[in-house]
Design a protein that fits this description.
The structure is a homotrimer. With about 350 residues, chain A is α+β, with helices and mostly antiparallel strands. Chain A folds into 2 domains: about 10-125, Rieske [2Fe-2S] iron-sulphur domain (Rieske Iron-sulfur Protein), CATH 2.102.10; about 130-345, Alpha-Beta Complex (Naphthalene 1,2-dioxygenase Alpha Subunit, Chain A, domain 1), CATH 3.90.380.10. The first copy, chain A, contains 5 helices and 19 strands. In chain A, strands 12, 13, 14, 15, 16, 17, 18 and 19 form an 8-stranded antiparallel β-sheet that branches. A 4-stranded antiparallel β-sheet of chain A has the order 2-3-4-9, with no helix packed on it. Chains in contact: A-B, A-C, B-C. Chains A and C meet through loops of A and α4 of C.
């Protein structure tokens, strides 16, 4: 729990697109840096350091003037490129005065910021979070806040054996999930780095919220296939079908796609953006609502557990944990991340 | 207030017996270690480290399965000896997997845990807290929680001169208590270590709650005779009788026995278990209630004072205190304790 | 934000006089030291260290006995000179037992304490806070508490350009205030040290609360002339008159005098005592009330801004600020203060 080295050359989600309406600011902290996000009159997203270079007041306490932001303390005005364009009482603002800007893009309803070298910001590195915004997939955006370090939540998402216990009565429903070993593959493409985890279970009961999506027999086959990508984005196909149906036969299947991402706020707090969508010809608001409520309920179960775990860890941070086979993915991901952070700091 | 070295080879009270009903967990922290206490189907008490050896989740968030505890995070199951007996997905749990267990005994309604070397746990070292559970003594269990280090509360209990001031209107009632010097004897038996403190006062008014126990004349003789034993248990005979009655003549006397004990929760917080009983042929619920309320009222007076004292100490932890004659017992006890802790750490 | 070195040989305001009624204590912390202030039977103010020398309990939890204070923990009694005059159970208190006393004077409704060498306490160093208590000036006392270091509030008071932005709708009302450069003079008299700041603006609208004092034309001339004196006391003449009236012609002018002072409570919290009075032949309670409410509203605007600024500073305390021309006074004051603290620590 010492001073954290963050991965910086990557896209972190700072907001759902709907959180940033035109004319308004969103102020949110990412990896310890206070940011201000807004949209210009032409709809472009802008992310500025939320800290006036003069006396460090948050610019988010100031106001919009056109596409500029005027600090609410002493009136310095900054344009969307972060340059100071006005200092009250001076004919011309000193050219060196500016606040940092961050590359920012909206992509399938998520607004991403690039916290590292702007020259390396690359839209090709954005995750394929298509189901946030796709006509065949129906969903509702979710957000919760954690008062724990983000890596404990990464751990949780990298080992679904917890579904059998933490979510016994919600997302899980069978000890078979924990008993089934997933396949773990490394993803090391030019665009994405991380792990692909595949867990397929046969002949287990469906969780109750599946039944709200479509009729299913008592026991089903079920799968979770997901990529967990830098910095901490989970993209998952999951679902279930009757045990009598062949793999690939989706006529009677529940098909879900989930996009979830963790954004560290500080060393000890985390933003969690997520949605789980179902595939269907037409949107059924009752189903969307049922899935959303089940997911929120389950994510609160996770948060209760991880918050209590973190309390125990703080009591004795040096006490070693006992690694078990189900930790394979989370240990591999932590190692990949350590290497990536070390490489970033070595090359600048 | 640096890093505390705790006395470990001793019995700390973790709970009143009634707090641990069958089938339920009690989670409580003792000297910084999270513990889980429960009773097996045969009524035995079990104290386990409340931290799964796998990822440090509190076991108290899990569930009973027979006399075992299953962790609520990834489903590891531990038996009452702390051994891991099941890891979901493994045929056999690795034999090295276990959580720590602590010797635990119930004795006169208090449940004690032994925080040091289990081989040295010895029932002969339990204090004689008989009045918690005795047909001739009538009482009700009490508990309060302090947000202060336990030693400041030990100090308070080792110098009853504060009764004249902190408890002027409750337990005290006369400056004579402060003006009377107690006898202090060292207790260094094979079983118990600590101090015996005896304070006898003549011709002072009885505190108002004495009058609720039995009729007394306006002035009485009064006494407090107590042992203060490692780690921090007070066992006290106190009472009052008419000044005209000889010592030992209890026909018209109020006779009280009190068992109180401090259990450090963390370096800066403390559990306080206590009761004060009166001797009488039959239990009178109104008297029990009156004594209990008086004691609670008075202990809140102590807590207000000690909490404020601690606030001042934190402002300037290095500032020396001015020792006075009434600090004799508390200084002696602190020295005995320091020696005992040092000896424990020297010999292991 | 490291360990603060305080200026000690100066008068800090600890209270408004009316806060200390006869027979009562006021407990308040100044530059980290807990103090107790009360008035003797003859009306003299007394300031004692609010920490018994015995076990560090706050004396303010004790009680008055005549002009003495008896500690509520173990009954030590101290006189108004801080000497211990009684230890219960001792015939005579040890002569070395005492608590620190602080020179204290009331002056125009403010109660001042001298935190340094008592031999250097000098009434001639008191500020001229006359308008707190003057028949021609009408006002009401104010107090707010900050959870920020005092220097950030000094900064605020030393640069009134913020009035155009923080107080745009309250005390300010025109960007002309920020655009006008003040004169800054050093005050280095035998009695007072600090800065005199003069800002005069022509042809701007009056803030709305001026109109509640007297009828004014749409645009006025306006001025702020204030001394900012060690440790952190602002004494200000301000006001406005019709642009057609000559300087010095006060027949149609609004004339205000303000006394404000910051007293550090701890390194990260501050007491703020203030009033703003208007000059008038007779007191008009509605006007007094209107000014008071305007000032409170505006000072809450400051506090919101400075609290947010402090939050940003704590995120990255090493990050440099960009100095601008409007920081001239605050930088000069911080330098004077550093020099004064260094000198004090050099000479003792």
């Amino acid at each position: 729990m010492g001073a954290v080295m963050w991965l910086k050359n990557c896209w972190y989600v700072i907001a759902w697109e709907h959180e940033i309406s035109s004319g308004e600011f969103l102020a949110r902290t990412v990896i310890g840096e206070p940011l201000l996000v807004y949209r210009t009159s032409t709809g472009e997203f802008v992310a500025l350091e939320d800290r006036c270079c003069h006396r460090h007041a948050p610019l988010s306490l100031g106001r919009r003037e056109g596409d500029c932001i005027r600090c609410g303390y002493h009136g310095l005005m900054f344009n969307a490129k972060g340059a100071c364009v006005e200092v009250p009482g001076l004919d011309r603002a000193p050219p060196s005065l500016n606040v940092r800007t961050y590359p920012v893009v909206a992509h399938n309803k998520w607004v991403f910021v690039w916290m590292g070298d702007p020259a390396r910001a690359d839209r090709n590195l954005l995750p394929d979070n298509f189901s946030n915004d796709h006509p065949d997939w129906h969903t509702r955006p979710g957000y919760i806040h954690y008062e724990t370090p983000w890596l404990l939540i990464c751990d949780n998402l990298l080992d679904f054996s917890h579904l059998s216990f933490v979510h016994e009565k919600t997302l899980g429903g069978s000890v078979l999930i924990a008993q089934t070993r997933p396949d773990i593959e490394r993803i090391d493409g030019p665009g994405q780095r991380g792990l692909r985890i595949s867990r397929r279970m046969s002949g287990l009961p469906a969780p109750s919220y599946y039944h709200r999506i479509r009729p299913l027999p008592e026991t089903i086959n079920r799968w979770f296939i997901y990529d967990f990508l830098f910095p901490a984005t989970l993209l998952m196909n999951s679902g279930g079908r009757p045990v009598t149906d062949a793999e690939g036969d989706n006529r009677n299947a529940v098909l879900l796609h989930s996009c979830q991402t963790l954004t560290p706020e500080t060393e000890t707090s985390t933003h969690y953006f997520f949605q789980q969508s179902y595939r269907g010809e037409a949107r059924d608001e009752a189903i969307v609502d049922g899935i959303h409520k089940s997911v929120i309920l389950a994510f609160n179960e996770d948060r209760d557990m991880i918050t209590a775990q973190y309390r125990n860890i703080r009591r004795d941070p040096q006490k070693p944990m006992a690694p078990l086979y189900m930790d394979a993915a989370l240990m591999q991901f932590r190692r990949l991340l350590d290497e990536a952070v070390a490489a970033e700091n070595a090359t600048g």
